Amino acid sequence: MNNNLIKFNEPPVVGTEINFIKTAIKNKNLSGDGQFTKLCHNWFNNYLNCPLALLTPSCTHALEMIALLLEIKDGDEVIMPSYTFVSTANAFVLHGAKIVFVDINPNTMNIDETTIEGSISDKTKAIVIVHYAGVSCNMDHLKRISRVHQIPLIEDSAQAIMSEYNGVPLGSIGDMAAFSFHETKNITSGGEGGALIINNRKYSQRAEIIREKGTNRSRFFRGMVDKYTWVDKGSSYLPSEIQAAYLYAQLCDINRVTSSRLKCWNYYYTNLNILSLNNISLPTIPKGCKHNGHIFYIKVKDYIIRQELIEFLRQNNIWATFHYIPLHTSTAGLKYGIMRCEDKFTTVESEKLLRLPIYYGIKTEQMKKVVDAIKKFYSKY
Questions:
Q1: Cα–Cα distances in Å, from 292 out to 73, 259, 322, 359?
Q2: Is residue 9 assigned to a domain?
């Protein structure tokens, strides 16, 4: 193992996870919806001021539950950016939807809200937006589109915990939202994990049923029915109490974790700004957006320069990486989706983007090494 290697990511560990897990084991209720699951639910209820928060085994599962709640079926259409992870699309494709991909805003890599209305048809059943790098989409514009066309607005907030739009937490604005606690995210529930957020109350009761394998078990435990039975579609969307205990430990320390990532983000931004005029461009944070330091990326001239820089950094024991391949160009994207608007920015901007190492606990000397290596690479230009 190379001890000098600066990894792209290290899963966060705040130090109290083991004690919380031991308590979960002592409680002898490991199958989910125990003490720590309830504590996590309460945390999200308070943080987002939402009617219902439900932990799931992954963000993918939360998105799949959203597809069930929207009753997605063959022939329906779901609008989303092409620049996103496959789970955003897969959750709806599984139920027969055609994905209508739209372009991105090159300044934020978020969905270009001006391309949405031209892509709406009488088959459109949802608009799914992604807060890339924890930076908010233009939620005022998106809410207006959702309201005028009466189409549910879904926030894929996988990267956006502790981020805000005009003082409002992301994940609390759309009809529903999904969070990720994968080990690459700001906080984790031990490798995988997610949460479904219900902001539109009309989905609340059915969400609990779908999560409980299609039964009304939750209502039974609240004393609302005298027995529970199978009443709807569903699956097993409960994480274990071990996952919930790990996650709750991190939620209790989330301000410290977020501050650490923002410190790293700001270090890169300040120290790479000297290169931004001619060689690279840096992230843009729109007015009114408060981000969480989830990703720090630079954009270089083109994919050729990007590959040269990746190789140069690896020669210097620094692991940096690109991100998504646009879904509309992928094998499955061509089969299950369509792009109705022009691809002005999605492909060309995705080929420029390079993510730098950023994680809770990264040391200043490591960040300095990354910055110095990038400056050395560009010294030849």
A1: 35, 8, 20, 11
A2: no
